[in-house]
């Protein structure tokens, strides 16, 4: 299965959430590949704490796979990460592998040349032979990376693969509107997909939304101390929900809602249960939200046509 | 490296000007064909028809083996030489694909290295006359050239047979003759080999040594033989690669997954049956291919005990299958 992670704006929490979601899938027993298609600012290496890919690798990253026709490195996080969480993954019975295909340090966006969509399809096919799940972290907005994968997934050799889209956005009026524009706008995903041979209806049916860093009024009781403040937040949350519903981004299309977590606010990383129960530096609700989001990826009832 | 592909067939050639090959290099990749069902004989042949008009070779027994025509790739690159010395490699690499029993795909790139016939690069016409031969400019020590090739990890710095064998796999797997459905999720295994080729006394047999590297799914083979042994050595490496892939897939993918599935109350039967019905029958050591092949295979077996290990794994799979049949997992 291919999961394309996208967002209209940068800094939404797409990569942090995507990496944690990938880690949960591996824990659940799947072989997972994480592809850093954010060619301009590859951050997955930093989130997985892989020193040699901190800002992308020196050579043979995904950027050079397309622009220089080199092979793409596959870094098994159990071997290449400094994070105990990821190094311990193989010791957990039944867990799958989590492999990073990093970006390049001196990457940058590039325009798509004629051979790239086929090369992209070839990469996805190869990974599908080996991995149960591929998470493709795309750069923000209507980037070349988005065009490239829309073009690749329209090719006949990828028709048998399951492709799904997750649109990440923060829980504010502006971010909801922006995410809506990214999908439904004049220059949005659906229109762009249609021009490349996708059926817009089907494409829309494969899109779901993830709300990131949402202040959770139950978890953050300490930070919401005054009754008036609580009442206002609840009312506003309700307003945002109504807005999302109207824009076809409501509950039925909600793949996950990740609570605001002070630890993640300061440190972009993969968290696990020991950060919750042992060190008590992350919130249980956050780990649970990643777990739920990971489970949703293969919940067929959830992805059925609406 | 600046590869340029022209398609022409022809086996590994003996270089002209009477130069003897000194070294043979190659790389074999092995993976499952991305198709839900096994391919029929005619579908296998059609898939291997990489060069229209050139013959596809096919053998039906003991396993069905279909081989594509050789593809020719021109190279002109610096060699990655271990320790000291430098060299430039100019000539052509041959590559072909193999389908076994309509299930397994292999991509092989191979080349014979000789000393250069001139002090400078000659016209391409000269190199094209000897497909599969690379001339080495400069005179690096052959041992250093061999070690340089075998130890060069990705990204390749010298003669990049890895990407040539990878490309042929990629092209075949992208073919519109396949339905692109993954029947079983497994990796691609890589075997990189190098052979010292020198005229041998009449009774001498080729020899082999195998090293497992730290890189997963990666094996290194060193061989010795006479220049005429090269086709046999190429075939030996393909057979080794196929059997090594079978063992790894059964031992490291199918058995552990089935055990986890059973522990987590999921149904492992599909992949167990796949192993028994589709993979186990492919275990067919190539000892029927003549005394030299037999000697090579037995030398390999005496160290690795692959056949015994494979037998043990298939027995384990039968146990697991019976266990599942007796106590079927809950179905949701
Ligand atoms: N659940 C969360 N709670 C608090 N902060 C978060 C959360 N998720 C992400 N962040 C913060 O948001 C910032 C952007 O996250 P990132 O994943 O890099 O965004 P993107 O990939 O969309 O550009 C990071 O600095 C991170 O610390
Ligand atoms: Mg990011």
Uncertain segments of chain A of ≥5 residues (pLDDT<50)?
none
Structural class of chain A: alpha/beta
Task: Please give the order of strands in the largest beta sheet of chain A.
Answer: 3-4-2-5-1-6-7-8
Gyration radius from CA atoms of chain B, angstroms: 21 Å
Mean pLDDT of chain B: 90
CATH topology of chain A: Rossmann fold
Classified by CATH, the class of chain A is: Alpha Beta
Strand content of the residues of chain B, in percent? 15-25%
Q: Structural class of the helices, strands and pairings of chain B? A: alpha+beta
Categorize the overall geometry of chain A.
Answer: globular
Q: Which geometry of chain B do the CA atoms define?
A: globular
Structure, described:
Chain A is of the alpha/beta class and 306 residues long. Chain A is built from 15 helices and eight strands. Chain A has an eight-stranded mixed beta sheet, with helices on both faces. In chain A, helix 6 packs across helix 7. The longest helix of chain A has 20 residues. Chain A is globular and about 60 Å long. Chain B has 332 residues and is α+β, with helices and mostly antiparallel strands. Chain B has a domain of 190 residues. In chain B, strands 1, 2, 3, 4, 5, 6, 7, 8, 9, 10 and 11 form an eleven-stranded mixed beta sheet that branches. In chain B, a hairpin with a 3-residue loop joins strand 6 and strand 7. In chain B, helix 5 runs antiparallel to helix 6 and helix 5 runs parallel beside helix 7. The radius of gyration of chain B is 21 Å and the shape is globular. Chain B starts with a strand and ends in a 6-residue tail after the last helix. The interface between A and B is medium-sized, with 27 and 26 residues. The structure holds adenosine-5'-diphosphate (ADP) and magnesium ion. The site of magnesium ion has 4 residues of chain A, from helix 1.
